[in-house]
Write a structure and sequence with these properties.
This protein is mostly helical. Among the domains are: 65 residues; 39 residues, no CATH class. It has a two-stranded antiparallel ribbon. A hairpin with a 6-residue loop joins strand 1 and strand 2. About 4% of the residues have low confidence.
Length: 188
């Protein structure tokens, strides 16, 4: 079986079919209203620009905050350093050498006969013969503090307040009497 197909040649077609008419599909009114409008496209593009502008402003504000944080951290480091320097100065001015020098400048003298209070018995005891001939109250063996070399005293000795030097006494101090109760100041 042979298959032979008949094909029509274009020249064999009638004249009408060679040039088809222009056919246009007309949309209905509902289809025309359902089409996207230009306003929707403009709203979409405008909203994209608003989003980009908001992101730009937000990134500027965040970077500004980062610079402020950096500046505050530098200021905090400076304040910590100055606090440490002031703490060192406070420790230096609170040293026993500085306190002894300031007390001497104010005219204070060490107690030549120190006494002790026993809180359990209420007895006041002294150390007879523990008079300090040097008048330094046991602070004579303090090592000089070189860090105090340029520091002024709180009150410099003046002519009105000369430094009091105790005079050594030849007699031994008497031992105080034992008190029955703990001494307290009289208040109103």
């Amino acid at each position: 079986m042979s298959s032979s197909a008949a094909f029509a040649l274009p020249s064999a077609l009638p004249e009408r079919e060679q040039h088809p008419r222009h056919v246009e599909i007309v949309t209905t009114r509902a289809q025309r209203k359902a089409r996207p409008k230009v306003a929707y496209a403009l709203v979409t593009v405008a909203s994209l620009f608003v989003i980009f502008a908001a992101q730009l402003i937000l990134s500027i504000v965040v970077s500004e905050g980062a610079y402020q944080i950096s500046a505050l951290q530098v200021e905090q480091k400076d304040l910590i350093r100055s606090q440490q320097a002031l703490t060192e100065d406070l420790g230096l001015l609170g040293s026993p050498q500085n306190l002894a020098a300031n007390a001497a400048a104010l005219g204070m003298a060490p107690n030549p006969a120190p006494l002790q209070l026993d809180l359990t018995t209420g007895a006041v005891t002294g150390a007879p013969g523990s008079f300090d001939p040097a008048g330094c109250g046991g602070a004579c063996n303090l090592v000089a503090n070189e860090l105090l070399a340029g520091k002024p005293l709180v009150t410099a000795p003046t002519a009105e307040t000369p430094a009091v030097q105790p005079t050594p006494s030849t007699s031994t101090p008497e031992t105080p009497a034992v008190v029955e109760s703990i001494p307290a100041p009289v208040t109103h």
